[in-house]
Specification:
Number of helices: 13
CATH topology of the largest domain: Rossmann fold
Radius of gyration: 20 Å
Shape: globular
Structural class: alpha/beta
Number of strands: 12
Distance between the termini: 15 Å
CATH class of the largest domain: Alpha Beta
Number of domains: 2
Largest sheet: 7 strands, parallel
Strand content: 15-25%
CATH superfamily of the largest domain: Glycogen Phosphorylase B
């Protein structure tokens, strides 16, 4: 089978990396295109996954629309030469539209209810949409729901074993508590209308949380001078090892909040709620979701302090993590079985 995957975000690398390696070992061929965003290319290189650079994309909504024909042309040019049997992506309009031009199937993951513009651009050209059961958005007939979270593509115990040597890379002592703060850029189409945590409250979060644990910051945007000393500096492929040994997550990334939950670490998430975040909060008690309002920003910092003042934190969270693993599936194995079955039904008579 010849498989074309389009990557638009660092998280997408993790969604497909194990699928790529397992299917490659089975003899399937791949072409991967990847947007030049943050550490996308670094991650692909670190996992020994060949790729084609499809450029930086655009930040504004108008810019994204204007970028569409350029990206489609690049993908079409590459696809004509590669001759794929199937396209895969996480809601990529480029993969979807090029697959339609070539009359080839496109299977897309989607767990982001508020990515409305994205759905308009990819869904009409997609054969199958895969979403977690917690998905609360508009449902369509060609949508299949799975019992899991996207982060279990790579953080399921079948695929992830934490590396304790990351503690030395961070420069923390064994047993020393540390927290990761994550601030996003708010340029994604589904972030329209959101501004994120204010600079003042970023400073307040660092000030209050650092009383209980060492603070590291991961930020898509440049940090003010007084916060630069907190910026985390590690190889990007080591980030999940960092998450595994952390005490708390505080930030604006839904993906990272869910990653922390998969690893049994409490997460404070500030942004519009998503179906999978709601399930992690209400059913498993691993995520605390706050809106981005000024009032909620203050409340979220207070919640962080409250959590850090508790006892037996890791032990309690580990029980909840094990519940997730018992109740949910290995999403990479799910995708492998689905793609192989989809291909057999469509092409093998």
């Amino acid at each position: 089978m010849r498989i074309f995957i389009d990557i638009g975000h660092p998280a997408h690398v993790h969604y497909f990396k194990n699928f790529y390696h397992i299917m490659s070992e089975k003899g399937h061929d791949f072409l991967i295109t990847a947007r030049q965003k943050e550490v996308c290319h670094n991650l692909l290189e670190s996992f020994n996954i060949p790729f084609v650079n499809r450029g930086k994309g655009r930040k504004s909504t108008i810019g994204k629309v204007l970028y569409l024909p350029k990206a489609n042309y690049l993908l079409l040019k590459k696809a004509l030469k590669f001759r794929p049997d199937i396209f895969l992506s996480f809601s990529s309009p480029y993969a979807a539209q090029v697959s339609a031009i070539l009359n080839k199937p496109h299977i897309a993951f989607d767990d982001t209810e508020h990515a409305r513009l994205g759905r308009i651009m990819y869904r009409p050209f997609t054969d199958l949409v895969l979403s977690p059961e917690s998905y609360k958005g508009e449902k369509i007939s060609k949508q299949k729901f799975f019992k899991g979270f996207m982060e279990l593509c790579y953080l399921h115990p079948n695929h992830f074993t934490p590396d304790e040597s990351v503690i030395d890379l961070l420069g923390v002592q064994k047993g020393e508590r540390y927290i990761l703060l994550r601030f996003v850029s708010w340029y994604a189409t589904h972030d329209a209308g959101h501004n994120g945590i204010s600079i003042e409250n970023k400073r307040n979060a660092v000030k209050e949380l650092s009383k209980y644990a060492r603070v590291f910051i991961s930020s898509e945007e440049p940090l003010p001078e007084d916060l630069k000393e907190y910026r985390i500096s590690i190889p990007p492929e080591k980030m999940h090892d960092v998450l595994n040994y952390a005490t708390l997550f505080y930030g604006e990334s839904a993906t990272m909040a869910s990653e922390y939950a998969m690893l049994g670490t409490p997460a404070i998430y500030l942004n519009e709620s998503l179906g999978y975040i709601e399930e992690l909060e209400k059913k498993y008690g691993l995520v605390y979701n706050f809106s981005g309002s000024t009032k909620d920003q203050v409340r979220s910092i207070e919640k962080g302090v409250e959590i850090l003042q508790g006892n037996n934190l890791k032990e309690e969270m580990e029980i909840k993590r094990k519940q997730i693993i018992r109740e949910k599936i290995d999403v990479t194995n799910f995708l492998i079985e689905l793609v192989e079955d989809f291909y057999l039904q469509k092409y093998v008579k």
